[in-house]
Amino acid sequence: MHIIITGCGRVGAHLAQFLAYEGHNVVVIDRNPNSFNRLGGTFNGITMQGVAFDEELLKEAGIETADALAAVTNYDNTNMMTAEIASNIFKVPTVIARLYNPDKKQTFHKMGIDYVCGTTLLAERIMDKLLQGNLIVLNEDPELGVEIVELTVDNASRDRAISSVHDINKHKVLSLFSGNKNIEWDDDTRLNPGDRLVMAVKEGTTRILSFFWGVKDTGDKQLSSQVSEGAKVVIAGCGRVGAQLADMLSQDGYGVTVIDKDESSFHRLSKTFSGEAIAGYSFDEETLNRAGINEADMFASVTNYDNTNLMTAEVVKHIFRVPKVIARLYNPDKTETFEALGMDYVCGTALVTRGMLEKILRPKARVLAACCNNTRSLVDFICPEKLVGKKVAWGEENLRMRVGYLERDGKLVFPSRDERFQKDDRIIALAAPGRLQKIERYARGRSGNGR
After folding, report:
1. What is the rounded radius of gyration, in angstroms, for the C-alpha atoms of the chain?
2. What pTM was computed for the model?
3. Calpha distance 377→356 (Å, rounded)
4. pLDDT at residue 31, as a whole number
5. Is residue 117 one of the residues assigned to a domain?
6. What Pfam families does the record point to (predicted)?
7. Distance between CA 172 and CA 39 in Å, rounded?
8. Which of 81, 384, 393, 442 has its CA 20 to 30 A from that of 238?
């Protein structure tokens, strides 16, 4: 495919690198030539300096024969104008725009512009993570009667072996996350409080699992699938993401306090916001105390600066011991630092890039959810020809994935490692995010990069 990307910020660069690696012809346009440094030395596409909506520049970029255009500059009006020109003048088949300000959704919709709103994606994802309890349902498949869940081990299960919960006929363990990392395990591996298990579970067996976890009822706080309404939330940062997150939580009945060093930022909060707003530095202990951090059930650090978010989240997590702490991450290059510190985070750049890629490429392998502190992704794809007849063990080893379950002829199958894949099997598997490109290439019927 010939793809034009206007804007070489973090999202544009991330998008361009992925598409070029996959063998697509990529042209990146940005008015600031220094922005192309984000592409790195391995990028093999074309870069052009100029204004995104300049028609002559777009012609030079090959827009008349382009298959897709992604308008991902930092300005909504620029993205809107570029998308309009690409769609209505040059008739590009697939045009996607990035949207910052959620208030402009209606305008984009009326103009027929397909978009990805990073602010909303990020706010909703952070809210989901904040409200998740010790039992997280990552994906439900009601027609097959199966769920993929992430469970946190409590004291009642200390020193139990995985074999005591691994039952191929009812539920299957896919991953063990312990000590801030995924670890290799077998049936004899012992569990410790705080460990997290990802499992494929037949519907209706969550009560069996709750009993295993020492809880009599799945509604118990220890194994709740959601934090109770009315809990207290403190949010650091009142930019677009922080304001939208605060409004959503406030509307749902949670007690919300927002902190920002710039008092004028509070104007972004809606008129219906019923919480508190406090001016001050989010990592300052006195400010946090004024915000009621000692009574907080949840905390989200969503300022515009990665270092501030990490520092604030660390203070809240280790000094004030708030049960649930989430940090916003801008720069994907800092992922390893956040993960090494065991910080639960949401990366807006990755969310927007994934949303753009899904609309541009319509991938064969769909990402359903992220888990284990974003170190694993749940993926859904139809068995490609290269896997037909091969054992599940072969697929798991070569694609570095763990198969959760198969849908075969409309029925649920929990496969053993000796089971062989069949044509048209639908595969639900767990894999590291870095392995998704290889799985996608297999799902498309090719094993190497290139067209």
Report:
1. 23
2. 0.79
3. 17
4. 96
5. no
6. TrkA_N (PF02254)
7. 41
8. 81
Structure confidence at residue 373 (pLDDT): 83
Please state, in angstroms and rounded to a whole number, the distance separating the CA atoms of residues 417 and 421.
10
- Match 């919480």 to its residue by tokens: 275
Instruction: Tell me if residue 187 falls in helix, strand or coil.
Output: coil
Residue 433 contacts residue 399 (beta carbons within 8 Å): no
Distance CA 7, CA 380 (A): 31
Contacts of 219 (CB under 8 A, 6+ apart): none
Q: What is the DSSP letter of 161?
A: B
Residues 211 and 266 reside in one and the same domain:
no
Q: Which residues of the chain have pLDDT under 50?
A: 211, 215-225, 449-451
CB count within 10 Å of CB 332 equals: 15
Cβ(38)–Cβ(8) under 8 Å?
yes
Structure-token pair, residue 198? 């990802």
Residues contacting residue 274 through CB under 8 Å, at least 6 positions apart: 250, 256
The pLDDT value given to residue 310 = 96
Domain that includes residue 83, residue range: 2-112
Choose the final residue of a domain: 170, 189, 223. Answer: 223
Written as one string, the DSSP assignment of 256-311 is: EEEEES-GGGGGGS-TT--SEEEES-TT-HHHHHHTTGGG-SEEEE--S-HHHHHH
| pLDDT reported for residue 137 | 85
Same domain, 313 and 394: no
